[in-house]
From TrEMBL:
Keyword check for DNA-binding: yes
Protein name, entry field: DNA-binding transcriptional repressor AcrR
PROSITE patterns the record matches: HTH_TETR_2
DNA-binding region ranges: 31-50
UniProt domain HTH tetR-type: residue ranges: 8-68
GO molecular function, one term: DNA binding
InterPro entries in the record: Homeodomain-like_sf, HTH-type_Tx_Regulator, HTH_TetR
Lineage: Bacteria, Bacillati, Bacillota, Clostridia, Lachnospirales
Keyword annotations from UniProtKB, A to Z: DNA-binding
Pfam name, any one: TetR_N
Length: 207
């Protein structure tokens, strides 16, 4: 295989072959031997770039995993830092902007994000939704405390129901990416999804 510009192009070829293998078979069943063979290099030469299949997978998806998670955490922090009286007014706006940002980012890096969402079992990246659910649960409890301080008490939400609803919300959002909905359609679905979940949560919270 022709390797132009030295190591950079070799890495691109490795990543291209690896993405195809991981997308087809998932991380656990992907064959490092197949990846190396399709690039036209020896296993020994490959280990000059990465020490393992796991390290290769992280090189492909790690930065994208971090971006999505940090963007979500940033939105939570920005909301929590607002004055209590302002939070009920802008809750939907901040969460909406965050979701659109994550959606557009995912569509710009579709293969890598699909690897995280669909093909990462057996790696530390398989728990993205679980991490986001935990963060959202903490944010929900903090917001309930804000409502109490504002004299707008919110009834207790059963923890199991809370976890199911929040998990379902994230799965609904990421389904748009997994199924590669046309971006304009995905944007419309996000808008409708947000309206649905916002109304539901306001009802449950007694607002």
């Amino acid at each position: 295989m022709c390797k132009i510009n030295g190591n950079g192009t070799t890495l691109e070829n490795i990543h291209r072959a690896a993405k195809a293998e991981f997308l087809e078979k998932g991380y656990k069943d992907a064959s490092l031997r197949n990846i190396v063979k399709s690039v036209g290099m020896t296993t020994g030469a490959f280990y000059g770039y990465y020490k393992s299949k796991e390290e290769l997978f992280e090189a492909i998806v790690g930065a994208h995993y971090e971006y999505i998670l940090k963007r979500f955490i940033k939105a939570q922090q920005e909301f929590a830092e607002l004055p209590a009286a302002q939070q009920p007014e802008v809750m939907s706006d901040i969460s909406g902007l965050c979701m659109y940002d994550m959606l557009h980012y995912a569509y710009e890096h579709l293969e890598e994000c699909k690897l995280i969402l669909c093909c990462s079992e057996g790696t530390k990246f398989s728990g993205l939704i679980d991490e986001m659910v935990e963060i959202e649960v903490e944010g929900t409890h903090a917001y309930q405390e804000v409502l109490r301080k504002l004299g707008r008490p919110s009834p207790h939400i059963d923890p199991s129901l809370e976890h199911i609803l929040i998990t379902g919300m994230f799965h609904t959002f990421f389904e748009l990416i997994i199924h590669e909905m046309p971006l304009k359609d995905a944007e419309n679905y996000v808008r409708e999804m947000r309206a649905f979940y916002t109304a539901g949560w306001m009802k449950i919270m007694g607002q």
